[in-house]
Amino acid sequence: MRLSSLLIIAMTFFAAAVVSLVAANFSVQLIEETSEIGVRDALDEEGMTWAEVEADGLQVTLAGIAPTEAVRFKALTTAGSIVDAARVIDEMDVEAQAAIAPPRFSAEILRNASGISIIGLIPTSTDREKAIERFSQMAGETNVADLLEKADYPAPDGWEEALAFAISAMAQLPSAKASVEAGRVSITANADSAEEKAEMERKLNRATPPTVSLVLDIAAPRPVITPFTLRFEIDDEGARFDACSADTEEARVRILAAATRAGVTGTPPCVVGMGVPSPTWSEAVAQAITAIKDLEGGSVSFADADISLTAMPGTDQALFDRVVGELENALPDVFALRSTLPKVQDPNEGPPEFTATLSPEGQVQLRGRVSDVGLRELASSYAKARFGSDNVYTAARIAEGLPSDWAGRVLAGLEALSALSNGTVRMTPDTMSVTGNTGNPNAGTEIAALLAGKLGDGADYNIDVSYLEKLDPVLGLPTPDECEAEIGAILTTGKINFEPGSATIDSSALSIMDDIAEILKRCGDLPLEIQGYTDSQGRETMNLALSQSRAESVLNELRARRVLTGTFTAQGYGEDNPIASNDTEAGREANRRIEFRLIRPDTVSEPGQTTLESVTQTSDTTEESTQEGASDEQN
């Protein structure tokens, strides 16, 4: 019985253990499922469906690839809000991030009287020391503020070209700011005059590399106009300005709008300057232009606050009186109006006249009537001083009964003629006309101001001056490529020869040098390399020295002809870069040459490829002295 009781007790404990084990296992499974489901639901609600959740006992493992480190941390936080954070196992990875983008490289260069400052971020590959050395040469070592930072990233396309061009440009501008980016340079500067501004823009645009975009903002001061002048006319040829001035851009727009209503076509030039006698200038001008339109012809001239209005001969007297009366009442108080209605003259009367003509070649003829011998000599001397003693022909005759101011009018007409490249001044007792061509876009305004000051109030004059760009001393300059083409055309029919075995230019080539010099004088600052070459006969060192001497001889010949050679260099290349075979005499002759090459930024030097070349007809150095003697005998 005792054994049976013990067995029952043992079986009871065993059954209890089994039940406990089953219950515990069931509890663990329940916890695992509850934890896994709860965490997965929470992650799905946050949009993190990429996360994989697996429960193992009390631990919850998170796997998968998170888009970023921040998202991975958020997944851990979300899981920790469902189960104890200590039970969460992190086996997540983070998606590989793209490489950090390179920074934006840029530099700001400021130059003024105090020196040069440069600030910005540049690539490590940029030669910073060389750039600072260039700036030190411009402003002195103690006047350069180097605030540059470097970043170890590849230089973007166009960066080195833009920086090199900006440094070269700042060397020409004593007061300016340059902003440099890859492939782009923006320059802000001041000029003392409109002419200097045009010259700055021309030089910078010509020097800009093709891979660089240049933005220019060069400001020139408004000119001082004395007297402040304007002249408007309507005749058989239509409506036009002989001179136009305005004190502001708004005034200019108002004046041109009135002129358009009066019949002017296009957009005529109108100078915005200083010296206006009244803020109501544009109002008075617009009213006067309208008056000429209502009279159906005539002219009106402004010289400061003095206005001279001249109607067309034959204008109806009643119409003239009405229009002039309305204008007088409408003009601002500061302006004074003088009006004239010319009489219709008998065409057979033949009024006295004086004419001065300037030809395109610079020849001047003086014809017509003068009051006495003294005036004729004075006019001739004045013209010779203006146009050259050998260029003046005088054929004026002495006549009586001329107006007392005839001498002053003659000299004023000659001074007006000197403002033209070619043209004619025709003068009668009542009027003066100036016609011709000029390369100065402001010549009409200048002539109008001159005549207004010389002829006095109420004077009648007519100005018909045409601006031709080809006569402009700035815009008329040929481009570097045009200069290259012109010199190339000369060298296709001639060669620069040297005396045998020397660097002395043969006399037969001096006329070619004259022609090249004349072209280069018109080309201005031209980056040019004069290159010397030889054939392969003789020692290489001797050939190199001879080619250098010959290139320098050509440079010196240009200097002797008063060519500005500050931007020229002479370089000898010896027997390098042959353009023909050295195995034949014809080939060796072709290889003995002088070449003129434009220096272009970032251009690989291939001296054999150029249109600016001439071939010498003399032999060069030979290997042995006996060969030299034989070569000299051949040449």
The helix tally amounts to 16
At the first level of CATH, the class of the largest domain is: Alpha Beta
Strand order of the largest sheet: 6-5-4-7-8-9
CATH homologous superfamily grouping of the largest domain:
OmpA-like domain
Low-pLDDT sequence parts: 603-635
Percent in strands: 25-35%
Total strand count, please?
A: 26
Helix content: 25-40%
Mean pLDDT: 83
* Overall number of domains: 5
Q: What is the CATH topology of the largest domain? A: 60s Ribosomal Protein L30, Chain: A
From the 3D coordinates, which CATH architecture of the largest domain would you assign? 2-Layer Sandwich
The value of Rg in angstroms is 44 Å
Helix-strand category: alpha/beta
Shape: flat
Kindly, what is the distance between the CA atoms of the first and last residues, rounded to a whole number of angstroms?
A: 148 Å
Largest sheet: 6 strands, mixed
Structure overview:
The protein is of the alpha/beta class. It folds into 5 domains: 25-94, Histidine-containing Protein, Chain: A (2-Layer Sandwich); 106-219, hypothetical protein tt1634, CATH 3.40.1520.20; 229-340, hypothetical protein tt1634; 354-471, hypothetical protein tt1634 (3-Layer(aba) Sandwich); 480-634, OmpA-like domain (60s Ribosomal Protein L30, Chain: A, 2-Layer Sandwich), CATH 3.30.1330.60. It is built from 16 helices and 26 strands. The longest helix has 44 residues, at 2-45. It is flat and about 175 Å long.
